[in-house]
Amino acid sequence: PMAPKLPDEDLTDVIVRSDCNAVIYSKDFTSSVKMMQNTEGVVVTEYIPLEDFYDIIEEGHAYAKETGKSYLDEEVKPDDVAFIVYTSGTTGKSKGVMLTQGSVAADVLAGVKTAPSGHAIGFLPLHHTYSWVSAIFTGCLLSEWGFICRSIKDIQKDLADYHPHNFAGVPLAVETIYKKIWFTAKKTGRDEVLRKGLKISNFLMKLGIDKRRKIFSTIIDNLGGELALIICGGAYLDEKYERGMYEMGIHIVNGYGITECSPAITANSPDNFKFGSVGTPLECNEIKINNPDEDGVGEIYVRGKNVMKGYYKEPEATAEVFDGDWFKTGDYGYIDEDGFLFFRGRKKNLIVLSNGKNVSPEEIEDRLSTIEYVKEVVVYDEDGFITAEFFLDTLEVPDANERIKKDVNEINKKLPGYKQVAKVKTRDTEFPKTTTLKILRSNVE
Questions:
Q1: What pLDDT, in 10s, does the model give residues 295-324?
Q2: Residues near 53 by beta carbon (within 8 Å), at least 6 away in sequence
Q3: Which strand (E) or helix (H) includes residue 252?
Q4: Which of 61, 68, 194, 227, by CA, is between 20 and 30 Å from 123?
C-alpha cells in the first residue's frame, strides 16, 4: 500500500526499493506511473489501471475456467510476507515494514474482541495499518455494513447520512466533533443549558443512574442518532476530550500501536477502560517497560504474534530494533497496577501531529538544507505546527532573513501537506551542540 499524497519522486523511490513488479493505480496517478516507467531501477512489469480492474477479473475467471487453476488453491502460510508498509520511522529514510499473513491475522482477530459490532464508517487512510485492524479487516468480520468517508471535513454530513453506531479515527476527528458541539451550543445560546445538563447527568451517574443519551439526545441526534463509540488512536488525545464525550454518552476507546506490530498493541474496551490510558495488551502480544525511571516510565517493548518479520532488505536496521525477541518501539510510557498502559511520548525527535501523521524532522531538514544560505536548521513541533528554526549565512547573503520564508514555501510545494513547514524562525547564533558537534535539540524546542 502506498500513501497517495506522496510526491512522485517518493512514490517512485518506494517502488524501486521494494522491488515491486506490479502497480494498480487510478487515472489520477497517470503522471506518477509515467515517471516510474522512465526511472532507472524500476522493475515493474504490470501497470494495471483501476478503471480496467473488472475486465481483468473477468480475464481471471476465464483463465481459471479454462485451466482449472484458481488462486484459492494457493497455500497461504502464516510466515509469508503479506504487506511491505513504508513508514517514516525515526530517520529521514522510510523503511519497509514486512508484515506477514500471520501477524496481521493475529492482530485483527485480537482486535475483534475489543471492537464493537454494528454499522460503521471509516475516516482513516486506507494505506495505513490502523485502518486495517480497526475498520477494514475487522469490519468484514463485525460490521453490519460500512462506509468510507473521503475527508474529515465531511464528518458531520456522513454521521447524519449513515447513522453509524461506531467509527475509528484519529484524535483530530474526536476533537473536531467535541469542538463543534460546544461551538453550536454557544452560537445558539445553549451553552449554559449544556453545562447544567452535564452537572445533572454526572450526579445521576454517581448514583448508578445513566441518563446520558436521553439528556443529550439532541446532540446525539445531530451525530446521526446511533453513535455510541469511537475507536481512537494514531496520536495523543487530551483526556478532556475523552471525558467530555463520555459524559455526553459517547464512549471514546483509546488504543496504542505501531506499524511494526500490525499495528495494534493495546486497547481499551467498552467494559474495561481507564481514562487517559491506551488500554491493556491485546491477547496476541505482551508488553513490558524497559529500564523504567523512578516514575515507572521507560521504553515500551512488545513481543507476540503481531510483531513484524523485519525491515525489507535492511538487516542491520532490523537488528537494532530487537532485544532478543522483544521489539523496541522507541515510545515511552508506564504500566499501572491494573495492567493499563499510559503513553508518554514518541521517540525523541519524532513529530506526531494531531491528525495522526508521524513526521521525521530530519527528512524535512535535509530538504531545507538544500537552500544555499542555510548553515543550520532544526525542525520541531511548536503548538501543533511544524516549525523550522534557521541559522543563516547573512554574511554571504545579506538579505537571507528576508528571503527564507519564500524559499521555504518553494520546498513546501514539493512536500505532502502534513509535512509542510508552518512556522519559520531565525537565530543570530549557532545552535548549541554536543561534544560530537550534534545539535542539542532539547535546548532548541
A1: 898 899 999 999 999 999 999 999 999 999
A2: 24
A3: strand 251-257
A4: 194
What are the tens digits of pLDDT across the range 206-239? 999 999 999 999 999 999 999 999 998 876 677 8
* Residue 97 reports pLDDT greater than 70: yes
Contacts of 233 (CB under 8 A, 6+ apart): 130, 134, 168, 170, 254, 255, 256, 257, 264, 278, 356
pLDDT value, residue 91: 40
Q: Which of 258, 268, 242 is nearest to 130 (CA)?
A: 258
**DSSP of 235-251, one letter per residue?**
S---HHHHHHHHHTT-E
What is the percent of the chain with per-residue pLDDT over 70, rounded to a whole number?
Answer: 94
CB contact at 8 A, 123 and 168:
yes
Question: Which position has the higher pLDDT, 197 or 331?
Answer: 197
User: For residue 288, how many C-alpha atoms fall within 13 Å in the half-sphere facing its CB?
Assistant: 8
Residue 83, number of CB atoms within 10 A of its CB: 19
25-34, 129-138, 181-190, 428-437, range with greatest mean pLDDT? 25-34
What is this structure's pTM? 0.77
Task: Tell me the Cα Rg of the chain.
Answer: 24
Which amino acid is located at 358 in the chain?
A: N
End-to-end CA distance of the chain: 34
Q: How far is CA 2 from the centre of its chain?
A: 14
Average pLDDT taken over every residue of the chain: 88
For every residue of 271-311, DSSP letters joined together read: TB--TT---EE-TTEEEEEES--TTS-EEEEEEETTS--EE
Torsion of CA 53, 59, 62, 66, to 10 degrees: -140
Residue 100: per-residue pLDDT? 98
**What is the β-pairing status of strands 166-169 and 46-49?**
unpaired
DSSP state for residue 439 in the 8-state scheme: B
Please say if the pLDDT value at position 245 is more than 90: yes
Q: Which of 362, 329, 365 is nearest to 347 (CA)?
A: 329
Q: Is 250 in contact with 123 (CB distance < 8 Å)?
A: no
Contact indicator for 120, 167 with CB cutoff of 8 Å: yes
Residue 7 phi/psi, 5-degree rounding, is: -60, 155
- Cell 466533533, residue located: 177
Residue 438, pLDDT > 70, answer no
- Quick check: 273 and 253 in contact, CB under 8 A? yes
Alpha-carbon distance of 207 to 211, in angstroms, equals 11
CB atoms within 10 A of CB 95: 24
